[in-house]
Amino acid sequence: MRSIISILLLAFIAWGIVTVIGEIPFGTEKSRVGGHYVDQGREETGASNIVTSVVLNYRGFDTLGEVTVLFVAAIGLGAALATRRKKEKREIEPASLVLYTGCRFLFPLILLFGGYIFIHGHLTPGGGFQGGAIVASAFILVYLGCRGRRISETVSKTIESLGGLVFVVVGLVGLAVGGHYFLLNFLPKGELNTLFSAGIIPILYIAIGFKVGSELAGVIDHLMEESE
Amino acid sequence: MDDAGLFSGGPNPILLVVVPLGFAFALPLIGFVSKKILKYIPVGVFMFNLVVALRLLPLVLKQPILVEIGGFSPPFCINLVAGPVGILFSALIALAGLLVAVYTLVYIKEGPEEKYHILYLLLLTAATGVVLTGDIFNLFVFFEILCISSYTLVAYVGNRAGIESSVKYLIQGAVGSSLLLIGIGLLYGLFGTLNMADLARQIVSVGSSSAFIPMAFMITGLGIEAAIFPLNSWLPDAHSSAPSSVSAILSGIAIEVGLYAVVRILFTLFGLSSFFLFFVFLGVLTLLIGEMCAFSQNNIKRMLAYSSIGQIGLILFAFAIATAYAVTGGLFQMISHTLGKGLLFLAAGYMIVRSGSMEISSLKGMGKRMPLTALAFTIGAFSLVGLPPFIGFPSKFLIIRSALAEEALIFNILIGLILLGTVIEGAYFFRVVQVIYFQKENEHQKRHEAPVAALIPMFLFMIAIVAIGIYPKLVTGILDSAASELLDRVDYIRSVIQ
């Protein structure tokens, strides 16, 4: 009985989604907002990656919110795990020499790649979230391959906080400079397609990259502690 | 910074969101310097927010303030609409946040306190963001922050019941968020914009049948957070197993913010008026079920949690009548519920600490053991039931009067049912008050009052309840213009898109 109701409910939801999607005129240039971003985005923000111009400039406030969502999730996980008693340490078998050396060799390269992705967020596909996730993947590699190595919680917490604060403070500086626009792009937009362009966007993306990287690494750290 | 934030003579409303957010990010850094000052930061932040909101209140009564973020004009940017509704709720959130933060100074002594304060700050920041934003996706983002911080705060105590109810809340809340997101996605597909005013403008021009399905998704999704029947099965567990300071915020602020979002979407985004009879019935049903379940509880916090469901039903009923009078009544009832339920949870919190049990029968003799806390509980209970001279009386009276003004037979029957709900409400609250004052305890215990820092916020809640109860004109002016902002969608659209 229960499963029949669930299936009917799902079918109803699916029907609703399909009906509405059927009415959406795909492939036409209907959206005024989207058209504006595509036509004016580069000029108005100085970022040659239009996605970035939307994510960090037109809708930068949402991104601040998304950064906060991740922050809340990481803090919440910490709070939920902090109430549990620490288990006894298990015996850990060290990884083989090949794995150990391979992980240590790859670690800085992955960090470099992550950094490249978020520093060039306004020029090429990718950005702070993606770069941060790559940075965190470097840490997970070390955690899996070189058991026993740990990131310092103090350092990761500091980077996390500073990343969020930089976002807020840059926004407030925009408010102070521009009169009444929070997150105003107050820096010179520079020449399109160069590293030093798009005003505050690279600064924000670097802050996000560091924040996301340290946050995800912290999450992994918490969960590894739990599994040992 | 303060001077730079000046905007048409007052502080910029964005500060209400950004300053608490900045402090939440900074809290771990401040924790390195000193762990002891951490708990004072929420107090300071919400004091700041309260001052800003109160300074903005007279300005927005004249004209809503449009905040364009990033320096672009709507619909290309995200904008805040600081009208009477937004600033009224911001002030209410800041007030409740401030008083509960003072209570927390002595109440929260164990566990990962630093994380508690961060989550508490973010929960209320997100609530402020939801009521101020003028962008539907931004509303979703703030809603996510609000929900995720609620899930973890419910599990803060770390016992089995807390984690279980938190997971239950998490699963239902996640389904709700997904439905909301699907609804927003469909709307964006149909209209190509996320700005609420822009959407509202275009939804008039399209037949409401294509808009109905996204609306149903969004209202169902938000209905879970707003605890509208039958989407509220998470609430009693979650609100009763959270620490009492968190319960006060979840009951007093979080579900009301959910209901605000429902009302904003119905009124402003879709401009519906013919479908409201459905919500009238749903409101009365939610009210009756909440009150009847509350009546059968032996656990004081579960009783209060079910009572919140009943109150939400009443508020939904008021909004669904959709006349200026009724919406004013609904907003009034929201204030009344925040103050009353906040006070009840704070008072119950220390009674539970002293008696060591959440059973109502264990509260025997509390009238002698902790007279001030017992008095606070009694005033909160009387106010929620709707006795004069407390705030619950004018707010309930306004709702009943606006329903009577409809002059339809169906409304007379519904008013009868609502009064029946109030009688049940009175019965279970008086039963607790009777246990507190008139039942003899088994062994005599010495007087042991709650600490001063917990009594001060209770005392301030009491003052607010009595002051507005005796002199409702303190708030009715603001409520009137808030109600007209909610009902006048043409004006809302015009204030955003020139």
Short description:
Chain A is an all-alpha fold and 228 residues long. In chain A, 71% of the residues lie in helices and 0% in strands.
Measure the end-to-end span of chain B. Answer: 29 Å
Report the uncertain regions of chain A.
none
Q: Kindly give the count of domains of chain A.
A: 1
Shape of chain A: globular
Order of helices and strands of chain A: HHHHHHHH
Major sheet size, sense and barrel closure of chain B: 2 strands, antiparallel
Strand-pairing-aware structural class of chain B:
mainly alpha
Low-confidence stretches of chain B: 1-7
Please state the CA-atom Rg of chain A, rounded to the nearest Å: 22 Å
Helices of chain B, by number, come to 20
Please report the total strand number of chain A as a whole number: 0
Total number of distinct structural domains of chain B: 1
Bin the helical content of chain A.
Answer: over 70%
Task: Tell me the number of strands of chain B.
Answer: 4
Chain oligomer state = heterodimer
Q: Return Rg of chain B in Å.
A: 22 Å
Helix proportion of chain B: over 70%
- What proportion of the residues of chain A form beta strands (DSSP E)? under 5%
Query: Shape of chain B, please?
Result: globular
- Largest interface: pair, residues per side: A-B, 64 and 67 residues
Written account of the structure:
The complex is a heterodimer of chains A (228) and B (498). With 228 residues, chain A is an all-alpha fold. Chain A has one domain. Chain A is built from eight helices and no strands. Chain B is mostly helical. Chain B is globular, with a radius of gyration of 22 Å. In chain B, 63% of the residues are buried.
